[in-house]
From TrEMBL:
Coiled coil: none annotated. It comes from Aspergillus nanangensis. Belongs to the ustYa family. Keywords: Membrane, Transmembrane, Transmembrane helix. Pfam families: UstYa. This is Tat pathway signal sequence. InterPro entries: UstYa-like. The chain crosses the membrane at residues 40-59. The lineage of its organism: Eukaryota, Fungi, Dikarya, Ascomycota, Pezizomycotina. It comes from the Eukaryota.
Amino acid sequence: MSLSRSPEDHDIEEKLLADDESQWLHQSKPRQTFPSWAKALLFLATAAISLLAGLAIGVHKQDLDGACIDRVAKHSPLLSDVQIKYHDQQYNGSFLHETIYRQDASPEVDEAWNALGANYRAVTVPPEEAQRSGLTADHVQINEKYGGGYPANVEGMHHLHCLNLLRQALYYNHDYYQDLGEGAFKNDDYILRRHVSHCLDILRQQLMCTVDFAVFGQVWVHPDHPEPFVDFNTEHRCRNFEDVRQWAEKNQLPEKTPADFLQHPRSVDVVHAEIP
């Protein structure tokens, strides 16, 4: 004998099966929850790791900058006060649009070059840093009564001085500065020529020592008749010049010093027979 099932019985059976399946799934995959303190701890840990990673990257970059300076430069007392850093800088290599540094001789142009430190005076190198800076006991020293040490010029400022003198000696600027009769132009023609050629050769050696191996691309100019022209507006990795300039400016020796400011040569000091 068969038992008949009503539609209501069928619906009830399906509902029970569905409830059992839902309960089984719920028990098999329990919902995972984290207490609020655990979430906060995870957030703080993530933030701390990010901070430490950032600090590590910054320290690593400083280490690289320092290693670079140790590799390519001799010691300088400047390094005790100035941290040498590097940044990307776009050169202004315009061929036709002149900056103030390229313009014809004038008081305004001279002021711009002077502001770069082209005529800064010497600084004092403390005795304890002299040997590391390449100075010897035979180099000129400052009288102990005025603090001792060695008078010395920052080479980067001297390079700018030399470049400025080459600018002044250009054929279209020479007469202007010859008439002024200031600086290098106080001297007779023989000394002036040697001064100019000295500066020329110093800059030659500097450029060869720090040879730049970047490349210039080319751009198209003159839309009516296109032709290639070198693009001198390149990007370079540069040191923080302004910090160096400010240090050289701040640490200059006085413009006027007493007659006995420099220590007179001792009997053991080497005195050259002619200008080296």
